[in-house]
């Protein structure tokens, strides 16, 4: 006789451990809690924004083990043991801005700021893969993130400036 799979109650909690911005977290979450909601509600890091809730806009982009992922498309239980970086973790020691943050400030890469956390994390990962992008490569790097305010011109300038800042500081 074949055994039936165990059916869990929809509100059953699951224990998940992971790191966010270098700090260890252990949380208990329902199986269907989205990672974006867990980061905001359970961990208390509200920098990850939720826009479309379909993975299209990129506002919820974080880094998971160094790679950009849409936090609104992942269940929190799926990040067991992962290392996550949110926008709050992109700064430099001593509360200094990271290269991408500094470039956004210098080049006016944001207006309302809603999409900015997703752009910052996406660009951070992109510059690790391509530390010296052309303007066309910078546009490709940000192609998966939507902004309703800026027209992307200053965001592209910010990508190129962030690459300069990284080179000047030794590639951090």
TrEMBL record:
Pathway field: Alkaloid degradation; nicotine degradation
InterPro entries per the UniProt record, alphabetical: 2Fe-2S-bd, 2Fe-2S-bd_dom_sf, 2Fe-2S_ferredoxin-like_sf, 2Fe-2S_ferredoxin-type, 2Fe2S_fd_BS, Beta-grasp_dom_sf, Diverse_Oxidoreductases
Keyword Ribonucleoprotein recorded: no
Record's keyword annotation contains Oxidoreductase: yes
Pfam families registered for this protein in UniProt: Fer2, Fer2_2
PANTHER family in the cross-refs: OXIDOREDUCTASE WITH IRON-SULFUR SUBUNIT
Protein name: (2Fe-2S)-binding protein
């Amino acid at each position: 006789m074949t055994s039936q799979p165990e059916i869990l109650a929809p509100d059953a909690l699951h224990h998940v451990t992971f790191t966010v911005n270098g700090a260890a977290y252990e949380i208990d979450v329902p199986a269907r809690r989205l990672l974006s909601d867990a980061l905001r509600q359970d961990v208390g890091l509200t920098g990850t924004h939720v826009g479309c809730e379909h993975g299209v806009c990129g506002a919820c982009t974080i880094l998971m083990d160094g790679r950009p992922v849409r936090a609104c498309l992942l269940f929190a239980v799926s990040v067991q043991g992962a290392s996550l970086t949110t926008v709050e973790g992109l700064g430099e020691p001593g509360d200094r801005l990271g290269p991408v943050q500094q470039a956004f400030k210098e080049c006016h890469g944001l207006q309302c700021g809603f999409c900015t956390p997703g752009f910052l994390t996406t660009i951070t990962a992109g510059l690790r893969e391509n530390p010296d992008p052309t303007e066309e490569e910078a546009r490709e790097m940000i192609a998966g993130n939507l902004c309703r305010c800026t027209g992307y011109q200053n965001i592209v300038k910010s990508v190129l400036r962030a690459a300069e800042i990284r080179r000047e500081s030794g590639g951090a």
